[in-house]
């Protein structure tokens, strides 16, 4: 198995969105203008970006609409950066109330779309940070979308100083989906057959993920024998590392690393966004 056991996050979308909407409705006009960890974007911009995520996904996965095209020689990260910025700039013309209404209206349509999907079927959009040579399953594609929405909510909460939505049942799937990037993270490091590496995330939303070197690639495995390398991070450090809300160096300073130093160094470069 390339990606590990399937998980179904679809029941969590309405709850995550209600937490987001409750947060946004409580913000003052000054809060909407506060800067965030995303360079050049304030709270209003992140909300506009989430609206873009909702509408673009409905347009592509439900309606089969291709949308913006790649420019000549444009890479996927460059394409996403360009099209995201274009929408965010346009959304600056929209009031907070309009943005909230769009999230509420489009969100229920997204829920209905996800409900029709076969989780084991090939994904509409592959998850490039989990593998580039194997098609992603739908459950991982949908899980990636959940992490996107949850992370943007946390970025807004950080900006305005209102923590929340970190209950284990909401946050643990984010940690779990991000951990599916571990085999791809280690792809450049060859090791003897059967070598294991283990990621441990501490906290109520944490867990333990082991990968093993088998048939020339790293694959998810049950935790068994003592691994050749172990990286332990708390849940807050892990999600921020995976989205580059903190640097690799900051994550390593917060981690406990043991065993093969090349493997542990690679494990602390885990990235679960397109960048």
UniProtKB/TrEMBL annotation:
Protein name, entry field: Mycothiol-dependent maleylpyruvate isomerase metal-binding domain-containing protein
Domain Mycothiol-dependent maleylpyruvate isomerase metal-binding, residue spans: 15-156
Entry-linked Pfam families: MDMPI_N (PF11716)
SUPFAM superfamilies listed in its UniProt record: DinB/YfiT-like putative metalloenzymes (SSF109854)
Any one GO molecular function term: metal ion binding
